[in-house]
Amino acid sequence: MKNDITHTIKPHGGGTSAISQTQGQSLLLGRLRVKPAMTALLFILLFLSACSNDSFDKRAVIPEAEWPQTERVAFDVDINDTISPYLFGLGLRHLENYRYSNLFVFLHTRMPNGNVTHDTIECTLATPDGKWIGKSSGSMRDLTIPLNENLLFPLPGSYHFEIEQAMRDPVLKGISDIGLYIEKQ
Fold first, then answer.
1. Partners of 60 in the beta sheet?
2. pLDDT category, 54, cuts 50, 70, 90?
3. 180 Cβ partners below 8 Å, 6+ apart?
4. Residue 134 and residue 140: Cα distance in Å, rounded?
5. What domains sit in the chain, N to C, each tagged with a CATH number?
6. Which residues is 140 bridged to in the sheet?
7. CA atoms of 98 and 66, how far apart (whole Å)
8. pLDDT above 80: residue 34
9. Confidence of residue 78 (pLDDT cuts 50, 70, 90)
């Protein structure tokens, strides 16, 4: 007794095509013959590769777009590959009524071995003639600020990042969210 299963799919351009499968035999797709077990393995591998930890992109919302100097935004990132270079930067959104053309932040990094580094970063938010940089969405501006395009992490393990606003305002108004992006090159 033979069990045939036929799936009909509609290609993007219209028309139809059929994929026939005979249970226990091979799947015929055009001229390509692939065993069902190999097809399942291929889908599993594609799923696992899509779930890799080669990138990190997270932002923290600043409540009511008011960021006190005393509050830091924190992120933990696991890095396993110390050979490949990474693209590393900040992502932020601000209101168009933000009163400055830049934003200074302190970036504190605790490495897996416990060593801590501190960096002062200036984020340019407007051109010299006063036009906002980044994508506009209503009264918001969204932008990414690359900090290092070929960052090599020195150690594998968990990195702890903290961002604090370094402007002179005790409560900085107009920054709605800020975060990090790390992407393997």
1. 178
2. confident
3. 56, 57, 58, 75, 77, 88, 89, 90, 91, 161, 163
4. 9
5. 4-50 (no CATH), 55-184 (2.60.120)
6. 95, 137
7. 11
8. no
9. very high
